[in-house]
Amino acid sequence: MGWWKPEAGIHLGGKCLLETEPLQGRDEDAVASADFSTMLSEEEKEELKAELVQLEDEITTLRQVLSAKERHLVEIKQKLGMNLMNELKQNFSKSWHDMQTTPAYKKTHETLSHAGQKATAAFSNVGTAISKKFGDMRRR
């Protein structure tokens, strides 16, 4: 038996037990509460048990391969001087740059810059007015 093929399915009495459409709502409840073991012959049960063992073995193998690839990835990153902090810095820098190039950021920056200039001018005018008042008070 090779990899499981969904199109192969499990057939009983000419009817395929494995559908290609996802289950929904009541279908899921019906499948969860159904006891298919009574519908299967002993031969079919043995075939399914053998397939189950094979699938579990394949899953174990895939997990081992994935783990080995993850270790290899870490080794390569270490050799390249990449670590979590560097990756975070790079991701942050890229995200910050991407954000700064958005039209919304540019418009907000322009608006706040303009508001800042007006606020600076207003504070300057208030400062000038206060200085003038103090000057007037001293002269009296």
Automatic annotation (TrEMBL):
Sections of the chain in a coiled coil: 38-72
InterPro entries on file: TPD52
Endpoints of the signal sequence: none
GO biological process, one term: positive regulation of apoptotic signaling pathway
A single Gene Ontology CC term: cytoplasm
Keywords, in A-Z order: Coiled coil
Entry's family note: Belongs to the TPD52 family.
PANTHER family recorded: TUMOR PROTEIN D52, TUMOR PROTEIN D53
Name the record gives this protein: TPD52 like 1
Organism: Equus asinus
Gene symbol of the encoding locus: TPD52L1
